[in-house]
Amino acid sequence: MIVLGIETSCDETAAAICNNGKIISSIVSQQVIHEKFGGVVPEIASREHDFLLNQVVDRAITEAKVRISDLDAIGVTQGPGLSGTLLTGISFAKGLALGLGIKIIPINHLEGHIFANFLAQPDLEYPFLCLLVSGGHTQIWQIKNINDYRLLGETRDDAAGEAFDKGARILGLGYPGGPEIEKKAKEGNPLKIDFPRILLDKKSLDFSFSGLKTSLLYYFDNFEETENITVSDVAASYQMAIVETLIEKVKRALVKTKYNRCVIAGGVAANTILREKIKEVNPQTDFVFPELSFCTDNAAMISFLAEIKLNSQSSNSFSDFSFGSLPNLRL
Ligand code: KG4
Ligand code: ZN
Prior knowledge:
Elements: E1 2-7, E2 12-19, E3 22-30, H1 42-63, E4 73-79, H2 83-100, E5 103-108, H3 109-120, E6 128-133, E7 138-145, E8 148-154, H4 160-170, H5 177-185, H6 210-221, H7 231-257, E9 261-265, H8 272-277, E10 286-288, H9 300-312
Parallel strand pairs: 1-4, 4-5, 6-9, 9-10
Antiparallel strand pairs: 1-2, 2-3, 6-7, 7-8
The structure holds 5'-O-[(R)-(carboxyoxy)(hydroxy)phosphoryl]adenosine and zinc ion (ZN).
5'-O-[(R)-(carboxyoxy)(hydroxy)phosphoryl]adenosine binds at residues 10, 134-136, 161, 164-165, 176-179, 182, 266-268, 270-271, 296-297.
């Protein structure tokens, strides 16, 4: 099977080709236009997708060295995401699938992130735990099998990625905030400031990051850099508070489920400190991360999951073109 994936849930315009479980091309065009606004402007993002989709899909097909007529199906992100940007991708995908007379598979973006781990470790076995950490979600899932998922905990306010993005804005760093804070934190001492680890005193596997962001805001209000304490120290301490909170909850979820496999999914999975520190939790636990380019939004995970869904359904499935975008889609 040769499956084209299209991803436009936020500000990455992405297309990829999966051929029998192997990604043979993956193109991601990050929309730089939002940088000057310090965050994604939905209307501009939709227009950018509209402008970029044709060339990004064309590049994915060319780099995969296939012809457009070789495509068996198209997988497209249905949600969650921004309403307008999702619609741009879905409309493009439907037009192309109709023109080619092939199937179309609506894909849940969150499920795509989880399945990116099978690209990193094809022999990954069920069941496993999943820490899903992106710009809009922070959740711990029990993944028992395909289509059999149980939510163990989630954030009550900001997502971990959002905490990085808002923290970076407070510190006067760029967008997206995660990589910027990570870069700044490299020179800093994570033990300099004791930012709060919220909800660690509670048994629940839920998270909360808005109080941490507020404590950074108050701390930084009167901050003046000296030789003794630098912005890098603040960034490193803030990053460590997020990472340690995530890891502590994962640790508890592993004890609760007695699982010995855990995958990390979503943009924050690209964070080096998280990748290093989580491995210290327990040498018996197998921690899996997607390769860096498949942590943040991409279409490889969409094409890969679309092919799995295509192979697991009857041949009449996915001929229905009447679906729309679902901005609040849950797993
Ligand atoms: O999965 P993703 O690309 O988009 C959503 O589905 O939301 O995640 C984006 C989030 C952003 O909040 C970004 O700051 C964060 O992932 N992120 C990182 C890193 N790279 C991206 N957070 C921490 N460290 C990173 N290296
Ligand atoms: Zn995402």
